[in-house]
Amino acid sequence: MSEVKTYPIINNPQYKPHIDEDTYHRMYQQSVQDPDKFWSRMAHQFVDWFEPWEETSNVDYNKAEISWFKGGKLNASYNCIDRHLKDKADQTAIIWEGDEPDQQRYISFQELHDEVCRFANALKSRGVKKGDRVCIYMPMIPEVGYAMLACARIGAIHSVVFGGFSPEALKSRILDSDCQVVVTADAGVRGGKQVPLKANADEALKGCPDVHTVMVVKSQNNDIEWHTERDVDYNVLKQDMQPECAPEVMDAEDPLFILYTSGSTGKPKGVMHTTGGYILYTAMTHKYIFDYHDGDIYWCTADAGWITGHSYIFYGPLANGATTLMFEGVPNYPNASRFWDIVDKHKVSLFYTAPTAIRALMAGGDEAVTKTSRQSLRVLGTVGEPINPEAWEWYFNVVGEKRCPIVDTWWQTETGGILISPLPGATKLKPGSATRPFFGIQPALLDTDANELDGVASGSLVMKHSWPGQMRSVWGDHQRFYDTYFSQFPGYYFSGDGAQRDGDGFYWITGRMDDVLNVSGHRMGTAEIESALVLHESVAEAAVVGYPHDIKGQGIYVYVNLMKGKQGSDELKAELIAHVAKEIGPIAKPDKLQFADDLPKTRSGKIMRRILRKIAEDDIENIGDTSTLAEPAVVEKLIREKL
Ligand code: WTA
Fold this sequence. Notes:
Its EC number is 6.2.1.1. This is Acetyl-coenzyme A synthetase. The structure is a single chain. This protein is α/β, with parallel strands linked by helices and 643 residues long. It contains 20 helices and 30 strands. The chain has an eight-stranded mixed sheet with strand order 12-11-8-6-7-14-15-23, with helices on both faces. A seven-stranded mixed sheet has the order 5-4-17-16-18-19-20, with helices on both faces. The structure holds 5'-O-[(S)-ethoxy(hydroxy)phosphoryl]adenosine (WTA). The site of 5'-O-[(S)-ethoxy(hydroxy)phosphoryl]adenosine (WTA) has 23 residues, from helix 11, strand 20, strand 24 and strand 25.
């Protein structure tokens, strides 16, 4: 990594950064020397409490037991809305930009308050109470935010399921956390195409007998099936609902939400976050990492169905009283200037997106960018996967015109908020590096024997100490929480990622070390896709690996061994690809599918993915040792038959 480019800290004369380099070092030292003292101070500064906590933290990684601010009472929706009403009732809280460029809505904090209270009262009218789980399967319309905050207001636990997931995926998530109420919309619309959410929900609910209420937001006003005993037209119900609803008093450790994410086994995990630590951590990271100042217009392009949408469209920015923009559409509709047109239209100053979007826009050429102004932009962020230096440089030079620092933010669904990232006024930048840990975060690199590596090193990325935004459990399966994150390296939280540390102490994330793929920034377990494939009557066995993909970061490469007597054909290939999309959702659609009479296995029958990965990557020279295979000839055949 010797010829890495380094960019000095950019000083913007109009903005004094919240954190400069000296402050970063000073606060970082405080945060790791006496974490409880540091986090206590921050918790007073960033969060409004109804009652103070009794114990700042209590953490035992050997039992996977984590608590922060126990005994403290607060409400997340109160922190995101009510406390801003005194000064900011008329300030825009949410800017909504629709799929078509002429669609927008501006929702003030007062309106947000009234809408969230009505939604909360509507949920209550259907029997929802503290601790109940509510599934939210919605397009990117303001009501998704109202529904989330309404749950938070009454102490219900939301489980948002990404609108791109299939009925099957939705069903398993509803069942896993026993949601009895589902909030959805007739349809979403992205790039001019409708997504039939209500029809998908109807399909899913055939297998969910305990769901008694489906709250439907009619957004597109199209024809949908209606089940009178179960379906409620939210816009009608809302008319009778009062715009006042007292926030439930919650303990800091009461669950706020569940969000499913993929792991290395077939079944997605319900990542559970609690209230106090999460609100503190998302608010604080949002303020410092984007250097948020009052008056900024902040836009995160994520979907509400992912953790980035939870933490950095809704909870973090709203807790800071920010104006947050949400967008229902896609980057290239109606044309490749759409992002930058939105930036100009709403004078966006802080912009946060994913490398996959940057790469796709970069491939479309500079002109779509350069013909727009973008003068309002001040900080640019990226998240979701490693950003390659070429894409970083393009984002920095062409989009930001060398004026805007890039914050490459590394974190996970499990971490609740950003753990490693530059701070705009405090960190020099190196394209491709997430740079340094945030306050209170103590990363380490371990070798396979769990030894901590010093200085310049490469290893498994772990955290030595808890932080308030950390997940607390896997819903319904605490043992799995322990097994997944704390068993391999006792005493540490293991992220599942590998990383390198350079001479400046900067971190470079190298990607997942387990069987999890990162396709366009979406996390996907290879086992999930394999399980979907073997459900098909023609498939005997399947193995899924990732391979480098110019735009998506990783593409999905599938090897399929057919049932005896079945013949591979282009039709069957198309059918199997469609089958995966139907079982999981379009985001899991395989990019390449190869029929294989046999898969390389060890003598004990374990599929050798390492070899399949090399074949998929076209890295035949580095296939390595195949002598431990039961049938070494299988490999030759796979290479020969590769598409
Ligand atoms: C990857 C998204 C490199 C990483 C917030 C992690 C990244 C997984 C970065 C979590 C980044 C996320 N650089 N890799 N800046 N950000 N990742 O749970 O592999 O959807 O473990 O959370 O994305 O994905 P998740």
